[in-house]
Here is the input.
Amino acid sequence: ESDFNPALFRQAFPYLQSSATSVYLDSAATALKPQVLIDSTLDFYQSAGSVHRSQYDAEQTALYEQARNLVAELINAPSPAAVIWTSGATQAINSVAHGLAHWLEPGDEIVISEADHHANFVTWSMLAQQCAARLIILPINDQWQIESAVLRQALSPRSKIVAFNMVSNVTGTEQPIAELINTVRQNAPQALILLDCAQAVAHLKLDIQALDADFYVFSAHKLYGPNGLGVLSGKPESLEKLTPLLYGGKMVDRVSKQQISFNPLPYRLEAGTPNIAAVIGFGTVLNWLGQYDLQQAEAYAVALAEQTKVRLQRYDHVRLFNSPQPSSIVCFVFDDIAVSDLSTLLSEQGIALRAGEHCAQPYLARLGQKSTLRLSFAPYNTSADVEAFFAALDRTLTLLRE
Ligand code: PMP
Here is the structure.
């Protein structure tokens, strides 16, 4: 029996109070923001100073480092020093790619998958070009998953990097991640593994010490946090291998005309004045989230999505791209109607959904589609949202099929 209270959760989001007619079904793109984030951001900008610079900024510095501790707890990082602030998942992947460029030799191999977001797909493609490495793009099966046997085949003594997502933003498919990591460790022990957790972080309990990858990345904005903030985490010894993407203040220890030495992690990878408001705001969000059983909240949102899939399946000419596991993402097309027509009319009726390529053109090619519609649910959604979606869909289909 769940004691998750969706009404209480929903109340925390001002958008859902002020915009009574809007049905927000695009949380996989970005989650709505709770009032505590807005309050915290306001507080920060009404105060003075930076962090880690002066005596008077001690209080802010404490909040800033507390947020790091909360992220370490959230994902069970080996230590707060293994939590590095970035501007988002995209920058975190780029930091790892640039940071490992020095380690790649011509002919080395980088393994990604056709299910990856452009943030992963393009970044590693460009690094492969830059380093004359070979890019290997793993195919996915009809359940949209990477098979261990396929991964094993792709590995070799030249495999240096294996990087893919844990949960897809297109279909919500969860990869058999522990098994895939195991396959890499057994067949290419020299390889470093990056997991794109941008979607996973809002849906799964991440325990990065239980998993055996090297790097994990995600963005705060998908977990009710602010824009412009992300996390790079992982094994300290792997993070130590990264050449900093950015150089500047606070990442250095001693600087003279003769010599420069760097600070230890996490600061070595955090040059410049950070996005302090975002970090402190995200800490506030994580504190607030702490009162909820996130697994129950997730089960509630997934149940809404699964009901939607069952109901959608009954329509003529519909095609769903379902994940093998229950998930909060509903990805679909109607074979007789253009995605853009549907999305235009649905959005005119207040349904906020995503239509297009979902920053994953190779994945769309695999699905045999130019674009799809995507509904993505969060625990602030309700069955009234599902009803509103189907009412709008029925009106739209009638109009378009007349
Ligand atoms: N990977 C996946 C799976 C994503 O869903 C996203 C966001 N859509 C990203 C990476 C990139 O995240 P961001 O744009 O916040 O850097």
